[in-house]
From TrEMBL, chain A:
Presence of the UniProt keyword Transmembrane helix in the record: no
Keyword Lyase: yes
InterPro entries referenced in this protein's UniProt entry, alphabetically: THDP-binding (IPR029061), TPP_dependent_decarboxylase (IPR051818)
Keywords, in A-Z order: Decarboxylase, Lyase, Pyruvate
The organism of origin for this protein: Teichococcus oryzae
Designated name of the protein: Phosphonopyruvate decarboxylase
CDD domains linked: TPP_PYR_POX_like
Superkingdom: Bacteria
GO terms of molecular function: carboxy-lyase activity
């Protein structure tokens, strides 16, 4: 019984990025900003292909915090897509959301927590939930691909109707192992 | 290489820039630019930053994308703009045609003891913006040039624009706008006709 359990086969079959995209649309999210990330690649493509969404590539994650504040000022709902390594870049800028009670939704793909191959990803991955919580962001988890729609819908409600700052962390186990060799 | 110092009075320059502002939406960078924008006349369509250093221009981008039919101006300092230099690249590739980024450049970190800034040490912000790909980049040296540029702030096409205002070093008396971010946010949205509930 020493086997390491891999992600359930079902997780791979569910189009969870598609489900997230659908949930964001139903929540009225119009602006999508992102720092490129393999786990988010399908969702990023869906945002770019969606004529009702404005997709913005960032040079660093904290830009997405300020962008979200500006979007809300103008009446737009937005989401920031990033990887756990980017959360540390956001810490001071999160003050902006807190000071002004700007609603905020970010979806974070986790690294450094499940079968991580790269030790450089581990410190920030391990600190990600606490770093967000230190700055007043409520942390939610998406561990099961089948719950993508439900979790993102609940997070969007909390953010945009409850005036909260919400981060949904997508488990590395759900995303699957990074493939280093093309097959 | 140090740049030649600017000569414009910052309060006068910002007041001239914001005269007849009509429907212009303004985000101001923390420190003196927020004081300058407030001193030019408080307005619900001003969002004064008191923090978020490096975020002013990119906040303007989010606003400009949300309100494509309205002109948006970010008025900030050279130090604040430099901290958010990556955001200038994000703006230039996103090309919001209704956004103008105005940088008040005195070559100093005015709020923290007049240390010389990167601009004061020779970094050419206008060249940087040009390299990033802003659609229009100007450097304004005197009140006549500011007055001539002012109508551009009203345009919702042709951007993003980038204007460097060469202002004189030194601080003015502080003119302090409201610091309550929730108040500033709600009155801004109310002004735009967005329900505050």
């Amino acid at each position: 019984m020493n086997q390491i359990a891999g992600p359930p086969a079902l997780q791979q079959d569910i189009d969870w990025p598609g489900a997230i995209h659908g949930a964001l649309k139903r929540a009225g999210v119009r602006q999508v900003s992102y720092v490129p990330d393999a786990g988010h690649s399908r969702l990023i493509n869906l945002a770019h292909e969606d004529a009702a969404m404005e997709a913005t590539v960032l040079t660093t994650e904290e830009e997405g915090i300020a962008l979200a504040a500006g979007a809300w000022l103008g009446g737009d709902r937005s989401v920031l897509l990033m990887q756990s390594s980017g959360v540390g870049n956001c810490v001071n800028m999160l003050s902006l959301l807190n000071s002004c009670r700007f609603p905020f939704l970010t979806i974070v793909t986790m690294r450094g927590e499940w079968a991580e191959f790269n030790p450089w990803q581990i410190p920030m991955g391990r600190a990600t939930p606490a770093a967000l919580e230190l700055m007043g962001v409520t942390v939610m988890r998406l561990d099961d691909a089948a719950e993508a729609d439900e979790v993102i819908t609940a997070a969007a409600d909390l953010a945009f109707n409850g005036d909260q700052q919400i981060a949904v962390l997508i488990s590395q186990r759900l995303i699957g192992r990074k493939k280093w060799v093309s097959e | 290489m140090a740049m030649q110092e600017g000569t414009m009075d910052r309060r006068d320059a910002v007041r001239d820039l914001l005269a007849d502002r009509a429907e212009l939406l303004v985000v101001s960078g923390l420190g003196s630019p927020s004081y300058d924008v407030f001193a030019a006349g408080d307005n619900a369509a001003n969002f004064y930053l008191w923090g978020a250093m490096g975020g002013a221009a990119i906040m303007g981008l989010g606003l400009a994308l949300a309100r494509p039919c309205q002109p948006v101006a970010v008025i900030t300092g050279d130090g604040e703009a430099m901290m958010g230099v990556g955001g200038l690249l994000t703006i230039s590739v996103r090309k919001p045609s209704n956004l103008t980024v105005v940088v008040l450049d005195n070559g100093q970190f005015g709020e923290t003891g007049m240390q010389r800034s990167h601009a004061g040490l020779g970094v050419d912000l206008a060249a940087l913006a040009r390299g990033a790909g802003f659609s229009e980049v100007v450097t304004l040296h005197d009140p006549d040039e500011v007055a001539a540029f002012r109508p551009r702030l009203q345009e919702v096409g042709g951007g993003p624009r980038f204007a460097v205002l060469r202002i004189a070093p030194g601080n003015q008396e502080r003119a302090l706008p409201a610091r309550d971010g929730v108040y500033l946010k709600n009155r801004f949205r109310e002004k735009l006709g967005i329900a505050v509930d």
